[in-house]
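Case study.
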Amino acid sequence: MFPKNAWYVACTPDEIADKPLGRMVCGERIVFYRPRAGEVAALEDFCPHRGAPLSLGFVADGRLVCGYHGLEMGCDGRTVAMPAQRVRGFPCIRSFPVVERYGFIWVWPGEADKADPALIHHLEWADNPEWAYGGGLYHINCDYRLMVDNLMDLTHETYVHSTSIGQKEIDEAPPVTTVEGDTVITARHMENVQAPPFWRAALRANELADDVPVDRWQICRFTPPSHVLIEVGVAHAGHGGYHADPKYKASSIVVDFITPETETSIWYFWGMARHFKPQDAALTATIREGQGKIFAEDLEMLEQQQRNLLAYPERRLLKLNIDAGGVQSRRILDRLIAAEQQPAGETVPA
Amino acid sequence: MFPKNAWYVACTPDEIADKPLGRMVCGERIVFYRPRAGEVAALEDFCPHRGAPLSLGFVADGRLVCGYHGLEMGCDGRTVAMPAQRVRGFPCIRSFPVVERYGFIWVWPGEADKADPALIHHLEWADNPEWAYGGGLYHINCDYRLMVDNLMDLTHETYVHSTSIGQKEIDEAPPVTTVEGDTVITARHMENVQAPPFWRAALRANELADDVPVDRWQICRFTPPSHVLIEVGVAHAGHGGYHADPKYKASSIVVDFITPETETSIWYFWGMARHFKPQDAALTATIREGQGKIFAEDLEMLEQQQRNLLAYPERRLLKLNIDAGGVQSRRILDRLIAAEQQPAGETVPA
Amino acid sequence: MFPKNAWYVACTPDEIADKPLGRMVCGERIVFYRPRAGEVAALEDFCPHRGAPLSLGFVADGRLVCGYHGLEMGCDGRTVAMPAQRVRGFPCIRSFPVVERYGFIWVWPGEADKADPALIHHLEWADNPEWAYGGGLYHINCDYRLMVDNLMDLTHETYVHSTSIGQKEIDEAPPVTTVEGDTVITARHMENVQAPPFWRAALRANELADDVPVDRWQICRFTPPSHVLIEVGVAHAGHGGYHADPKYKASSIVVDFITPETETSIWYFWGMARHFKPQDAALTATIREGQGKIFAEDLEMLEQQQRNLLAYPERRLLKLNIDAGGVQSRRILDRLIAAEQQPAGETVPA
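After joint prediction, the assembly is written out as follows.
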């Protein structure tokens, strides 16, 4: 169960640089490709001739050419040509609204007429040269909501990521969850603690002492359908924490775009945007590599959790205060999904 | 859906040279073996004692000995002996009509009393020393009819095999499909074209110039249940094409025996018979290697096409003129399958 | 179908030496761990917080700490603590009776109140320093009863293990099966035969001539739920066989603990206990390696037999005299399983 009338990250530009990409998003088999430089298109990955996957084809003159018998498909899902054939009566395939923005390709797997690019929320860090971004992609066999839970409850860092970003004080600092419209915010502040290894390295990269007590914060923001952006950072203790002057701080935004593939698998786009030394490509690579290792630690846990939940579907899970972020996020998702399933004209009470 | 009252290629002799072979054909688990030199037998791969696969056993004195507890099975499916046991009351297992001919082992998975070896159609190239043959075997996860379609519509060569046997002119030469009884013939002739790389090599092997225009032909013949033999070749242009004198020609027969394993998987026996330099074993090996690479290019396409068709079972595919060969072949198959399912005594209108 | 009110071997101590072990036994997902040195515990592998597998966690202060969010679980299935949480109302998870004995961890997957450790039958060889034991573990995709059949009918040695322990005379010596309560005994004695390779090596290890005729015996004992212990050995011929003086003998006990994972897969704990040279660790290693290779020969046969039986569920298998051990064992199992499914208070006629 996922909202289909929503923008999801489908892929990154490098994935369609050389040839079309076949990828399932929200249960839809889709081919993503560049009809021309700077353009992007998304179609059902199904040739109307004999059902071959169009993603095994190639692009020529702005058309997606089927790699089986040469049918030439337009970006709108209408066949433009086919060698020695009249194609006027060929059935159309579905085209999906698709937008390139902020360094990602976004797709709308639901009703095309509702797809307004303005609904992609603004990502300051992606457009501003004072920021740098690095990230990656994991395929994980779990319900996308398990990953939302994971990211909205960072107490797991103490256990899953104990050698890098975890620390005992996370557990001890109660998180505060608030809901603003369709945004869920879970914030946690730790004062006067030792920075864990990842953050000591970040302090050094920021030319700050790494052996003094710090104030640390984690502010997780869920927005539908399944995006979690987390402001994280440390400041030398006593300078105002999250609000401290930049000269005392190392901070960044953990970026998580979670795209359902099926009901029990996801494409997980993870990354980090930082507000310091944006030109330092080596630093970007180092952070990306470190984050990749840390985030890989979640995979086995999430996949085995998913298997447990499938094996015991009737069990009720606990909803503790630390789970409030995930619980509130699911409530919003349930409402959006119910609204989509409603006949047109009816409304669902919030 | 496949005809069961038909001869299918089960394996090649080398596959049963050293020990029995277990292979599923048309959904039947069958063990193939040589009871004695020059003989071949095919039985259900199921020991009547405890259900062990007989294909894990061995042959002794003309009997297939179960590798679990030593039951000795005769070629007729009757247990001959078992250590320290009286076997008279043992249940029989099914034996399948099986014939070795033309360098292949042929099996009849349907009603044994209808299995007439004379129904195996004559293969001139297999018996005549003026011909040489080389081939191989691929396992592919697709309905056998998708492979029939593939072979009866060679426009795919332009796209799937663009670097070897494909060329634009294939698309441009309209194929002509005719039906003669249960045989479907799709023929295509291209005149005054450049030979693609595979055929240039064949011209050279034939001691013919490879840099002059040629006439090229492809004559695909489908015969039930799922055999497609394709006469292919090139002749120096203007000498009569298909009918040209051999001294201007390089030609051969592409051999395709497609044996269903299950509804969605096949054993694909592919090869090439050539009418020139039959003694040149090195040439046979070279052609075989080249053909193996070319035919491997179809695998991913067919398997992904199959997955698409399973995902969208309700979609109607197009039946263009280029698809006529496959469409007519399926029509014959449908008729044969319906006839098999008919109660005895009734007939199905053609 | 397996009895659940029974002691099964779950694992060996080395498997839980460093960290918890997640293993499915009789369809139950269980985590095994050492709360403290010398203790062992078994719980549902399901954290009551969010369903994470507890087996990915760690042990601290006698508690099993969930590796996801730090819930601390007691050996009784009650949550003891969780960072910053009150846990009194947390739902319990199931704890399983578990005992360490004879070098194995035993678990009772059924009703806990019926789990009497006294029901684990005495294993003389495991407690007595005059014996040495070596063994291993295989995972096999077959119904546990197929392995019981395998071990209660050693005629398969002639075929499956023809190069090591098999010999023609096994087939020729009729086995005698007797039932004593819930124990099934199948015994076979061969007189004045050549020892096969494995036993020749054992004779040499025992400082006995290996090139003289021997008497050989195999006495298989099945006890529920699925343990098969087999007394095996050879003695120089004419000295009384099984009853011969130890100075003429090489003998041991083949140990087989078969633990169902699912209806069609098992954890197979195999090993050999010997009554000679118990201090010779190198000999233990050599025998273990040899036995491991021999027992691996059964895997493919059992897995393919299982696949055949699933494909032809309606077929009746033969029950010959050599199968009597397996048949009688299944009869006892059927009775035990029926008794478990009986409403309390009713009894099942034996």
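Observations recorded in class. The radius of gyration of chain C is 22 Å. Chain C has two domains: 8-119, 132-339. We will return to this complex in the next lecture.
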